[in-house]
Write a structure and sequence with these properties.
The chain is an alpha+beta fold. It is built from five helices and seven strands; from the N terminus they run E-H-H-H-E-E-E-H-E-H-E-E. The chain has a seven-stranded mixed beta sheet, with helices on both faces. Helix 1 crosses helix 3. The radius of gyration is 15 Å and the shape is globular. It starts with a strand and ends with a strand.
Length: 169
């Protein structure tokens, strides 16, 4: 199966919204009440994606397998309560649909994200990861991200304990 990568455009908004909702629910949906999950998922929709994909402050890369979207990575402005040591970007989202796990998509997207951050002049990348998402934490460890703080990630009225991680470029 051929995997291709391209920059996402506003025309991809509905596809990226679907990947996000599906991946988030597959991975974390069982942790929340239906009300909190619905409030969270409905707080960012297709119009929000279109706005970000039209904004040069954001950069998004999509992976497709045989023409079907399989995952994406999104970089954007830093919005975390951290002190930076120079220009920084937020690795806002990195999601791969579960049926595509193990195909190397996450690695290719992360490699692109690191290079894109460098191209944009960042000296560091920050992200947050759920404290109990051990698979993602192992993945970020392989890329030399280090824990630098704690963050309350809100899903509706539910606060998850996230770890803020940083990678120096």
């Amino acid at each position: 199966m051929t995997i291709t990568y391209r920059d996402a455009t506003p025309a991809d908004a509905a596809t990226l919204d679907r990947i996000f909702d599906t991946s988030f629910c597959d991975t974390f949906g069982h942790l929340y009440s239906p009300e909190d999950l619905e409030a969270f998922l409905s707080s960012f929709g297709v119009a929000d994606w279109e706005a970000q994909l039209s904004d040069p402050a954001f950069s998004c890369r999509i992976a497709e397998q045989e023409g079907e979207a399989a995952g994406y990575i999104k970089l954007g402005p830093l919005k975390l309560p951290v002190e930076t040591e120079g220009p920084a970007l937020l690795l806002d989202q990195l999601y791969v649909l579960k049926e595509h796990h193990g195909a190397g998509i996450a690695q290719s997207l992360m490699d692109w994200g690191v290079e894109e951050a460098r191209r944009r002049g960042a000296s560091q990348i920050f992200l947050t990861v759920f404290v109990d998402n051990h698979r993602a934490r192992r993945f970020y460890d392989r890329y030399d991200f280090e824990a630098v703080g704690r963050y309350d990630f809100m899903v509706g009225n539910h606060a998850d304990e996230d770890i803020i991680m940083r990678k120096l470029l």
